[in-house]
Amino acid sequence: MRSQIESTSKRVQRNVKDPSKRSSLHQRLTKLRRDILPDSAINFFDTTPKKILLGLFVGSTFLLAGISYSLWKRKKAQEAMQKQAEAKRNKRDAELKSLELPNIEIPPEKRKLILESDVTKLHMLLDEHIITSEMILIVYFEVASSLGLKNGYITEINFEEALQAARECDRLRKEDPDCEKGPLFGIPVAIKDSFILKNLGTTVGMAARANAIAQEDGLVVKVLKSQGAIPFVKTNTGQTLETYHCSNFIWGEAVHPDDPKRIIGGGEAGLVATRGSVMGLGSDIKGCLRLSALNSGLYSFKPTGKRLIMSGHFGGLQYFTGHRSFNEMASIGPIAKSINDLELMMRCFTDAQQELLIQEPLYMRKTWEEDETKITKKLKIGYIKQIGEIPVSPANGRAVQEIVNLLQQDGHQVVEFDVNGLLKEILRLADQTLFGIPAREFIAPLQGERPVPENIERDRIAYTSELWIRIKALTFYVMGRKDRAKKLLTSLGVKPHELFQRVLEIDELRLKFIEQWMEQGLDALVSPGLATPALPIKDIEKTASSLFAYAGIFNVLNLPTGALPVTRVNENEQYFTQDSAPQWRVFQEAMLGTQGLPVGVQISTLPFEEEKCIGVMRIADNYVKNKPQ
């Protein structure tokens, strides 16, 4: 400002020729300048543009330096986690390479007999001294350590301890045939990586837990061992247990045995499906246990929450610890080759855990009532054609209709249970509440490790400001993409009062569902297993909502639910729907090349009617096995 006034003064003086006038004008201009702007103000305005530019430069430099440091720090954390993951995997691989299996003779016919038998049949063979527990262990471990390793089904191995346990079972069976034996006596089983097993890790797909070695068995494993079972291998999980595709950077990704480009769900399903184990023990929080069985043509069972103990199962994310509804949704359960094996595992846990419930006083104190599984009367069974907004493929719809027809042919009353409007509302609330885990809470346990593709969006959101996320959500809403906007806002988490309110709303809807069930007088419910056969890995982020809709809904409803294989995709069923709407395009593509893949149904009963559910599953399974081909 001062320089501008002085410049104007000089120009005026040059144009005034009379020296006296020029001197007088100069004095007046100088006085005007001092009267209008004090020196401090003049100095300020003279230097402000420079200060602003300097401030912008310094601020930008610090900002860029901060961003660069943050990116460098994150990269270093990712490299450190990657090294831990590689070290953990290399240790397992070295152990497998150095392991020498016992050199015992197992004739080909016995090997085939072992691989084709379920647990019930193996028990008979053991009691008749046709085979030994050591034989069973070796035969299954050979498959698990080869094909199971190749397909990404196994994590850590427990062979040495399992071998000692198997030999001890063989000794007791030979020397003391009348000794008290558990129902799983001498049977090697695979357990999900999330179960705590002494001297082994429980990584649940996170490199940060690579060195977390258990000092003792968890309660679930103690119950399993008390029934004579021999845990010999742990199976793969998704990163943090919160993904439908079983993939992580320690153990790799578990792929479908019939099509490696498709998901299997859980490592225990892949292992049982490829005859790497006779049975598996898994957990079911969002339907993973059942979708794994349905994808691989196996049987699985999710009991009501609180029917079986959960202590000794590491949940991955601790965000919902103490959350009543979430805890009720989670349960453990078996995956097996037959209904008989499902019942066997359920009986083992419900009976054996009674002595341990002093440590878990909030769980159901009820032993297994075998008589309730023996159904002699004709039943009234409801069935559902669709759950939520996503329809089912022709093959999945046919599986439901086949069960309906078989039940009707045997004299059971079967009626359509039209509650999809209610289920849609439950799914909407559940999506916003029970799985509205704040992105930063979700990513925190990874401690800088790279997220798997299914978690990348959460990772991006976690490192983005809340204001920017809300602006993006508003933009999507204005563009008409309300689902996308809702998903972004949900990723920020919900406030406590909103959480409690929505949980209450879900509880009210659950009660309405049960009231309608009871008004209809239903004994059980048949529903589609999933919307499609096993989904492609590349599109799982876009299609995972269908898995939650069809499998996760029964966690939210907290109903005992079993998965039952029924049929396979026919050549003319390799499409999703006749509707050419854009939202079904990814599902249409997913159906290409599905011929021969297994599909099934789910069967549910009211809470804590596990025995009845198993009984209805057995009736339906017998119909399927005896139907004309």
Account of the 3D structure:
51% of the residues lie in helices and 10% in strands. The protein has helices at 2-15, 19-36, 39-98, 108-116, 119-127, 133-150, 159-175, 219-226, 267-273, 288-296, 324-329, 339-352, 394-409, 420-432, 439-443, 456-462, 466-478, 482-490, 496-520, 540-557, 585-591, 610-626; strands at 154-157, 188-192, 230-235, 247-248, 252-253, 279-284, 299-302, 331-336, 380-383, 413-416, 524-528, 561-568, 598-604. The strands form 2 sheets. The chain has an 11-stranded mixed β-sheet, sandwiched between helices. Strands 4-5 form a two-stranded antiparallel ribbon. Helix 8 (219-226) links the parallel strand 2 (188-192) and strand 3. Helix 12 (339-352) packs antiparallel against helix 22. The N and C termini lie far apart (97 Å).
